[in-house]
């Protein structure tokens, strides 16, 4: 029996998969946490940023709050994920962003078995890494 995903455009409701044995619910906050932790493991990412700028500056999030730097929306075809990051100074941003897109897409699809249609990378700032940090 094939699984059936119920589409819902509300970002606060769970992704629901019905199977003959029961149903599985995955909340967007769980998907955001998976995407945030995957992003933090990418080369060139200095940290996750809050989704909005405050007085023109990006807020660097702590490791336990990485899901706050990710927005997840469900479309008819799958998930659309917006990731807000701060990149390391001196590294090609386009390469970091492409790597980040591939990594987040792979990890989310592997973890929740829902297709990811698009991963939008929003670079909120650049940070110089110092020795001893």
Q: Any overview of this molecule?
A:
By secondary structure, this protein is α+β, with helices and mostly antiparallel strands. The protein has a single domain, classed as Alpha-Beta Plaits (2-Layer Sandwich), CATH 3.30.70. Helices cover 25% and strands 33% of the residues. The chain is built from two helices and seven strands; from the N terminus they run E-E-E-H-E-E-E-H-E. The strands form two sheets. Strands 4, 5, 6 and 7 form a four-stranded mixed sheet that branches. Strand 5 and strand 6 form a beta hairpin. Helix 1 crosses helix 2. The longest helix has 20 residues. The chain is elongated and about 55 Å long. The N and C termini lie far apart (52 Å). The N terminus is likely disordered.
Brief summary:
By secondary structure, the protein is α+β, with helices and mostly antiparallel strands. The protein is built from two helices and seven strands; from the N terminus they run βββαβββαβ.
